[in-house]
């Protein structure tokens, strides 16, 4: 079955994440990079978005999962995001997600976690 890749580069959002005292009191920026290999089940019809996976729905799920509640560990958050995406979007065959904290350390651009899931 053919696939189509949808991707997000550096989706920027504020999240309540972390175990340090200052992280428990305020949000901090996160960057999300994601790739989705989506099963192509029908021909694209330019006038009907229903013939493709609407990437707005993927973005909304990522944003909601990253901002709806405080999470202590980045590892926990990325697992929750991947689980939700695989559960809610059955046409997604593979997802690769990277979530990074750009302000975690002053001596590097960002630190983060990357995972990949497939069915």
TrEMBL record:
One cellular-component annotation, GO: cytoplasm
Entry's Gene Ontology BP terms: folic acid biosynthetic process; tetrahydrofolate biosynthetic process
EC number: 4.1.2.25
Associated pathway: Cofactor biosynthesis; tetrahydrofolate biosynthesis; 2-amino-4-hydroxy-6-hydroxymethyl-7,8-dihydropteridine diphosphate from 7,8-dihydroneopterin triphosphate: step 3/4
SMART domains named in the record: FolB (SM00905)
One GO molecular-function entry: dihydroneopterin aldolase activity
InterPro entries: Dihydroneopterin_aldolase (IPR006156), FolB_dom (IPR006157), GTP-CH-I_C/QueF (IPR043133)
Keywords: Folate biosynthesis, Lyase
Keyword presence, Lyase: yes
Domain Dihydroneopterin aldolase/epimerase span(s) in chain numbering: 6-117
Domain of life according to the entry: Bacteria
Catalytic activity: 7,8-dihydroneopterin = 6-hydroxymethyl-7,8-dihydropterin + glycolaldehyde
Function: Catalyzes the conversion of 7,8-dihydroneopterin to 6-hydroxymethyl-7,8-dihydropterin.
Family label: Belongs to the DHNA family.
Protein name: 7,8-dihydroneopterin aldolase
């Amino acid at each position: 079955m053919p696939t189509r890749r949808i991707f997000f580069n550096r989706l920027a959002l504020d999240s309540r994440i972390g175990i340090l005292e200052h992280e428990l009191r305020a949000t901090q920026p996160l960057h999300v990079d994601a790739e989705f290999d989506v099963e192509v089940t029908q021909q694209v019809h330019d006038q009907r978005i229903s013939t493709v996976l609407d990437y707005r729905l993927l973005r909304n799920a990522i944003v909601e999962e990253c901002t709806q509640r405080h999470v202590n560990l980045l590892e926990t958050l990325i697992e929750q995001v991947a689980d939700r995406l695989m559960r809610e979007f059955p046409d997604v065959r593979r997802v690769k997600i990277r979530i990074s904290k750009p302000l975690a350390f002053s001596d590097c651009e960002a630190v983060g976690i990357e995972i990949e899931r497939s069915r």
